[in-house]
Design brief:
This protein is α/β, with parallel strands linked by helices. The protein has 2 domains: 343 residues, Alpha-Beta Barrel (TIM Barrel); 182 residues, Glycoside hydrolase family 3 C-terminal domain (Rossmann fold, 3-Layer(aba) Sandwich), CATH 3.40.50. Helix content is 38%, strand content 11%. The strands form 4 sheets. It has a 6-stranded parallel beta sheet with strand order 5-4-3-2-1-12. Strands 13-18-17-16-14-15 form a 6-stranded mixed beta sheet, sandwiched between helices. The chain starts with a helix and ends in a 42-residue tail after the last helix. Bound molecules: beta-D-glucopyranose (2 copies). The site of one beta-D-glucopyranose (BGC) has 5 residues, from loops.
Length: 602
């Protein structure tokens, strides 16, 4: 009887929720229709235009003049004051201009918060996606995204160009670390978890932000891992490997998607009507909108007008434009040319209306019409202790223990002397990698707050333990253990494409010196991908793949000293040598150095 009652209650609750949901949708549709019916063509095209902050900062009045619907800050564009308060002020300043336009349609502000709110000084920086992939923990990824969103909202920004659901099939690719895994199954789960965390229970909540799933489709499958390259596979393979992340993200409520710079069998994605319109909006029922990648339309044709025509007709709804007045293909040209195309009948008004309807619907859903300005109570919470604890947990869960000879790890906290060396042992910039304060990231003290691995080790050991240091691997003689932190220097996108992933001479030498000292050697590899490590692996007694952990180096010490047992599993297949790349789970003759899913524990 009780059981019956419960079932009836659940049923009624579901019905009520569905009714509420559809009433809410109807209310939004009504508002959108009201607005569209009042809009001029210029106002509509303005909504389809997203301008980079750097390109418009000298002419902020253009937001009102051209009815600009969206602003972004690219990897290198940011306010002079990059503190949370500085960002919030910038956001409010721009929003106030938009709110003075005839129809008072607020702007929506996009950013690449791809591992935390990473352009903000003092923000919490999480491991890059490859590390989260190693955790295999959707709950964790949901938390990471929720914290990122809350930190974003503390600066006004409510739209994140994330998650990247690329399935990276080739380590040479400079964006490998933005991919959770080479395995579509894992990407599918973690991408959806990110969307849930970012968008919260309700997209209009004051801590929720709009997710943008990218880069559609096949960005991680290009030949030779070339960034913005060509993915040469048949449709069945394209769908099997690269589509699952989108299907699950849309199910999880994703309302914006970014097409990829890359091509599928020679056709650039930004002009691929079949995939953008027929598959995404048709077959998959995607109700949100498509925003282009950075000046990506420009690549469709030498003639900008033709390029715009191709892309908008293929299904693109909003163009991301990094160029300002005086530059080629700037936002005013885009607006002028798109207007001409409509007036010439080359882009149908129905296409414009569809794009604007999609954009405005999502804008209403985000709540930005009701709460256009920064939620100032959230500003002081950027980089809070509680948020950093979640990042620290993410670090611990992301580390993959590849070797642990004679149970060298975990280390005792009471050793007499620990020698910590290698160029990345005391370097927050190297820990964070690309997309940190600047587009490419850089070594050194790039961001306030956080803990380097060296500091974390010092925080963890007993008072009687001496911690000595060097940068080049020297000086370990007589210590109980030598910890060497080496790896890649920060990079992003095409600049990170590599034909050679062997360790640098500096790193190999550091490990050699550590080994020659005769003390046990623990190598910490900080990298955005698998590297060629066999010689160094042989010289070390323990070896941990740390990926790009972000600001919370304490998570590394937690694992080194056994406060947390390693749980990370390789989200990729680890190649023996460059000739083995690409190597992926499911390949014929699969013989990697470490297979997909490998990971030791204590
Ligand atoms: C990248 C995108 C990013 C955009 C805006 C592009 O170069 O491919 O991932 O969202 O820039 O910064
Ligand atoms: C921007 C990035 C963008 C890249 C693309 C950089 O200057 O800051 O956001 O992704 O250019 O080329």
């Amino acid at each position: 009887m009780k059981k019956y009652f419960a079932i009836v209650m659940i049923f009624m609750l579901t019905v009520t929720l569905n009714i509420a949901q559809s009433q809410k949708e109807k209310a939004v549709q009504k508002k959108v229709n009201d607005l569209i019916s009042q809009m001029t063509l210029e106002e509509k095209i303005g909504q389809m235009t997203q301008v980079d902050y750097d390109a418009i900062k000298a002419n902020i009045k253009d937001i009102g003049k051209y009815f600009i619907g969206s602003i972004l800050c690219g990897g290198n564009s940011e306010p002079d004051d990059i503190t949370p308060a500085g960002w919030a002020n910038l956001y409010d300043k721009f929003q106030n201009v938009a709110l003075k336009t005839r129809l008072r349609i607020p702007i929506i502000w996009g950013i690449d918060a791809v591992h935390g709110h990473n352009n903000v000084d003092g923000a919490t920086i999480f491991p890059h996606n490859i590390g989260l992939g190693a955790s295999r923990n959707p709950k964790l990824v949901e938390q990471v995204a929720a914290v990122t969103s809350a930190e974003m909202r503390g600066t006004g920004v409510q739209w994140d160009f994330a998650p990247c659901v690329a399935v990276s099939r080739n380590e040479k690719w400079g964006r490998s670390y933005e991919s959770y895994s080479e395995n579509p199954e894992l990407v599918k789960i973690l991408g959806a978890a990110f969307v849930k965390g970012m968008q919260g229970n309700d997209l209009s909540d004051k801590t929720s932000s709009l997710a943008c799933v990218k880069h559609f489709l096949g960005d991680g499958g290009t030949t030779n891992g070339k960034d913005q390259g060509n993915t040469e596979v048949d449709e069945a393979t394209l769908r099997k490997i690269h589509l699952p992340g989108y299907i699950s993200a849309i199910k999880a409520g994703a309302k914006s998607i970014m097409p990829s710079y890359s091509s599928w069998n020679g056709v650039k994605m930004h002009g691929n009507k079949y995939l953008l319109t027929d598959v995404l909006k048709g077959e998959l029922g995607f109700k949100g909108f498509l925003v282009s990648d950075w000046a990506a339309i420009d690549q469709l044709d030498k003639d900008y007008k033709t390029a715009i025509e191709k892309s908008i007709n293929a299904g693109l709804d909003m163009a991301m434009i990094p160029n300002g007045q005086g530059q080629k293909n700037n936002y005013i040209e885009f607006i002028t040319l798109l207007k001409e195309l409509v007036n010439e009948g080359k882009v149908p008004v129905s296409r414009i209306d569809d794009a604007v309807r999609r954009i405005l619907t999502v804008k209403f859903e985000t709540g930005v019409f009701d709460n256009p300005l920064t939620e100032k109570s959230l500003t002081p919470l950027v980089g809070s202790k509680a948020n950093r604890e979640i990042a620290r947990d993410a670090v611990r869960q992301s580390l993959v223990l590849l070797k642990n000879e004679n149970n060298l790890l975990p280390l005792s906290k009471n050793l007499k002397r620990i020698h910590v060396t290698g160029k990345s042992a005391d370097d927050i910039g190297n820990q964070c990698g690309g997309w940190t304060i600047s587009w490419q990231g850089k070594s050194g003290n790039v961001i306030s707050g956080g803990t380097t691995i060296l500091q974390a080790i010092k925080n963890t050991v007993s008072n009687s333990t001496q911690v000595t240091t060097s940068k080049d691997g020297s000086g370990a003689e007589g210590a109980d253990v030598c910890i060497v932190a080496v790896g890649e220097l920060p990079y992003a996108e095409m600049i990170g494409d590599r034909q050679d992933l062997t360790l640098s001479k500096e790193d190999a030498d550091a490990i050699q010196k550590a080994k020659s000292s005769g003390v046990p050697v623990v190598v910490l590899l900080l990298s955005g991908r698998a590297m060629i490590i066999e010689p160094e692996l042989n010289k070390s007694n323990a070896f941990i793949a740390c990926w790009l952990p972000g600001t919370e180096g304490q998570g590394v010490a937690d694992v080194l000293f056994g406060d947390f047992k390693p749980v990370g599993k390789l989200p990729i297949s680890w190649p023996k040598n460059m000739n083995q790349i690409p190597i992926n789970i499911g390949d014929a003759n699969y013989d990697p150095l470490f297979p997909y899913g490998f990971g030791l524990t204590y």
